[in-house]
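User: Hi! I have a protein structure encoded as tokens and I'd like to know what sequence might fold into it. I'm fairly new to this, so please keep things simple.
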């Protein structure tokens, strides 16, 4: 599949102008490497870990730190479910000095991307020059999905935004797990700390305004009889019962979350079921799990008595169900990985096979998460192979869904939506 990827053009008009104006001298000494290779950029999520505050002699140290960071994030929780489709690359850009700025301590160091703690007067808020990072990544990689800046400083800190930033402090890995959830799944913060100027709205999948509690976005996780809104005293565990608890998205009143706690509220917790599901669904939307399709030719000619067998194979994910459609109409009897078209009227038909993956942590969509799709143009002779004539009686009525028959790409345009501004984290 051909899908939009992160490039300077897809980052946004304002950022693009910044990138074009940014100096490129910092790109002179850089080293690119791939530390996790799961497949082509067309089928996988491509993450780039960028070095900050490492000397030229620290390249081996950075490689080890980057691998530990990648394992710590993509081997964790919902990310692990999709790890077979995550490529991890590194971009080593040497700095003149190690670490990051600590203004209150009078420490100012010369680094490639100007990382500094104490942004906004918050000691642990570690930020950098996003535009410089994106210049470097865009110059080094033709296509990428997420850039992360790894800062060689033992102090605890990190931040979100267009480029998540994290220090090498061992506890800071939870900051990045949280920030990646913003970046790839568009999740909202669930804590109540004030965020002056932040609009009071609920576009994210894990929060809801009081006016939007019936039905809940996460209704499929709510046990019948659960009070909505849900009082705090009703909680009997970290994630139970799923309901609507007041206090989220930097609001103490009028904004609700699904569970008593979650990593989007408390970095010491793991993800609640709603956020866990959202991350898997979002990552699945960015990959193509198609391993092979038969025939490879997208145009198929049927014989006088039969059409050739069509088939697709999905890699890494199980269990899989395959839906077959002819001209947008579902073939109810065909739900396996191969099918021979039958009952076609004379002429050209679009046959689409869609592979759906079932994961126990995903309840919506109930019919599985789409992970691969392939289409063929099938030309049937006037006799109509398969003995069904030209009335198409083997084909069920149209059902809801994509009836275009065209092979679809994966839309990555929402990846930046959840990280337009830096956030403060506990």
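Assistant: Happy to help. Inverse folding works backwards from shape to sequence: for each of the 426 positions I chose a residue that suits the local structure. Here it is:
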């Amino acid at each position: 599949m051909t899908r939009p990827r992160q490039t300077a053009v897809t980052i946004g008009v304002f950022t693009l102008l910044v990138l074009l104006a940014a100096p490129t001298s910092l790109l002179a000494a850089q080293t690119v490497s791939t530390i996790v290779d799961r497949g082509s950029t067309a089928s996988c999520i491509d993450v780039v870990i960028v070095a900050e505050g490492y000397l030229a002699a620290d390249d081996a140290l950075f490689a080890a730190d980057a691998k530990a960071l990648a394992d710590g994030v993509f081997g964790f929780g919902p990310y692990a479910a999709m790890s077979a489709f995550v490529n991890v690359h590194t971009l080593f850009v040497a700095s003149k000095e190690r670490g990051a700025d600590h203004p209150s301590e009078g420490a100012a160091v010369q680094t490639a991307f100007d990382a500094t703690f104490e942004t906004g007067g918050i000691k642990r808020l570690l930020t950098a020059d996003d535009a410089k990072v994106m210049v470097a990544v865009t110059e080094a990689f033709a296509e990428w999905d997420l850039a992360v800046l790894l800062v060689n400083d033992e102090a605890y800190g990190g931040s979100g935004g267009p480029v998540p930033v994290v220090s090498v402090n061992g506890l800071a890995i939870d900051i990045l797990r949280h920030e990646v959830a913003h970046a790839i799944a568009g999740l909202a913060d669930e804590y109540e700390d004030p965020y002056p100027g932040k609009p009071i709205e609920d576009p994210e999948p894990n929060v809801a305004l009081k006016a939007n509690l019936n039905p809940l976005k996460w209704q499929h996780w709510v046990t019948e009889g659960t009070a909505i809104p849900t009082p705090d005293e009703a909680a009997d565990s970290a994630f139970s019962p799923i309901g609507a608890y007041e206090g989220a998205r930097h609001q103490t009143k009028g904004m609700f979350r699904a569970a008593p706690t979650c990593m989007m509220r408390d970095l010491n917790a793991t993800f609640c079921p709603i956020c866990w599901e959202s991350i898997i669904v979002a990552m699945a939307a960015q990959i193509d799990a198609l391993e092979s399709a038969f025939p490879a030719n997208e145009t198929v000619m049927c014989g006088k008595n039969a059409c050739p067998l069509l088939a697709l194979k999905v890699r890494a994910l199980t269990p899989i169900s395959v839906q077959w459609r002819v001209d947008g109409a579902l073939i109810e009897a065909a739900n396996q990985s191969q099918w021979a078209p039958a009952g076609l009227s004379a002429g050209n038909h679009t046959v689409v096979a869609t592979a759906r993956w079932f994961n126990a942590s995903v309840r919506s969509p109930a019919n599985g998460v789409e992970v691969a799709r392939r289409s063929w143009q099938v030309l049937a002779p006037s006799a109509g192979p398969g003995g069904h004539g030209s009335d198409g009686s083997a084909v069920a009525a149209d059902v809801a869904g994509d009836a275009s028959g065209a092979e679809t790409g994966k839309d990555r345009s929402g990846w930046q939506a959840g990280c337009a501004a830096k956030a403060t984290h506990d």
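A useful reference point when you look it over: Residues 99 and 152 are 5 Å apart (CA to CA). Feel free to ask if any position seems puzzling.
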